[in-house]
Amino acid sequence: MTIGQRYLDFAAREARGVSPVYERLASAVAHDDELLARLGDLPEAKRQPNLLFGVVRLLGGPVDDPAAFHDYVLAHWPAIAAEMSSRITQTNEPGRCAVLLPVLASLPQPLALLEVGASAGLCLYPDRYAYRYGDHVIGAGEPVLDCAAQGAPLPDRRPEVVWRAGLDINPLDVTDPADVAWLDALIWPEHTHRRARLRAAAAVAVADPPVLVRGDVLDDLPALAAQAPPGATLVVFHSSVMYHVPEPRRKAFAEAVAALPGHWISNEAPDVIGFDGLPEPPDDAHHNVLALDGRPLAWTRGHGQAITWFG
Hints:
Blueprint: H1 3-15, H2 20-30, H3 33-40, H4 49-58, H5 66-75, H6 77-86, H7 97-106, E1 111-116, E2 130-133, E3 136-138, E4 144-146, E5 148-150, E6 161-168, H8 177-185, H9 192-207, E7 211-214, H10 221-225, E8 233-239, H11 247-258, E9 263-268, H12 270-273, E10 288-292, E11 295-300, E12 306-309
Parallel strand pairs: 1-6, 1-8, 2-4, 5-12, 6-7, 8-9
Antiparallel strand pairs: 2-3, 9-10, 10-11, 11-12
Helix pairs in contact: 1-2, 4-8
């Protein structure tokens, strides 16, 4: 897939119907030879739309007008390229807890949660957030995570979590304004509800900080998992993370998780984990596959806004 095709795919499958600003911008970049040439100078893993758009927003550049975006990127390319080279997309969307909840609540309680690719750890608090699946409400307080659920076995209560820890190559600190600014820049322009959700979730994390360990998703996983308290069900989970990991190491990671006690929840694009015999997704939008211990259960949207159960 060329860089231009990658941006067109993002516009059609991820941004359409979710962010008109990013749909329009990604389509413009896909046909902009000057910007495509600049992106071509970066390593392949650093050319993704979310990274470019997030960095421009972080630096104060315009994203709502493709012409102004073009001029800004060309004028500030050295700074933009430096930021893109040193950063990764670490979208820490607490809304993803809404698609994880049906699985987490079905496991033997209490739980010891270990998130791989935890960013700032905001998805480590599924027991602290409130959920709204149409008329079905679980828990109280802020943030409230809205999710359209089709066929999912919705629980009546939140899970019980007695230990929570995260592993990340570059963990973020919700008490650091610079780290929070990066998390905010990664939220799509029109999504004011997600910004409010980020602030509410960050307040939860600040009040009871998780254990966040800087380390490799494969090499440092067993040692951190060994810290989980006895008597709790260990749950290793990750969402939209493994595409950062080279394919051979993904397979080694799956083997490493399978060797641990407890359970493994993955929520990744269908081609990242690799499942056979998946049903057709609900529509042409980008969907992740929610799976428990390697068994696919549902299609989910990237920000946790919808789950379609087939397991």
